Amino acid sequence: MCPAGTTPGSAQCPGNVSQYTVGGVVDPPFVTDTCGCSHVRAANQEHCLQSVERSSDAQVEGIAQFYASRSWNRESPNCTFTYYKEFLDTTCHNPNAQPGDCTAYTTRDGKQLINTLPPAAVSCRQPARWRNKQECSIVAGSSGKAGDYGTEYDWMGFLYGINRPSDAAAPRVPTNDLWLIYRHACERADAPPGVPPSANPDACTARRFVWDATNTSNVTTAAPNVGGFRQGVEARYAGSLPTIFAVATQANTYGVGSDTNAAP
After folding, report:
1. What's the pLDDT tens digit per position in 165-198?
2. Phi-psi region for residue 129, left (φ > 0), alpha (ψ -120 to 50) or beta?
């Protein structure tokens, strides 16, 4: 949403006007083109693989893309996800590109990039750290904590990385446990301090999710309880410190946690 008293698409709230949110724009105001969806034409611009989103929104889409990656890739050192919208980067993301499939794109700050028409192929194995490397400005300052925001791209890679770690000896989070992590995260958001986690937590109801519920700016008077992925992991794997450590390490490796460094 744009600040009160401003007009969507104006200098005070720049960006393309949302088709679905009255009084809003499709990207957070003032983010760069590589952190938004201004390059998307084949589908709606409300979100895309590389746009910075509130963590809950990034996780919802990241889970779907993880599931597709898990379904269509054999377990191996490589993993490819094929995206149905355009992808903006320094290189073409179509290995079989025909003329017109990859076109020059000049960003608002003058960078010369390549816009790949769908299908656009990206790695779901290699950490992109897109939020961090593109310095998506929403993660810094008074606007929010890093773990409150993320990209679908990074969450897809993170979930794939903990589910199918490249190191066969590393702790693995099975797919069933991913759902349990979210159920535990819901429960921990509602449980009084010191209450042990349930072995069989209730299914989630409406809940917003961030990386770390103890380090978030998402808590408000109207919505005081926020689920944290980190807290869900700690509850699910309370007896396995190596797994907890491995997941936290992967969160920083893929750029979904609190670490905003561009390099691993």
Report:
1. 999 899 999 999 999 999 999 988 888 878 888 8
2. left
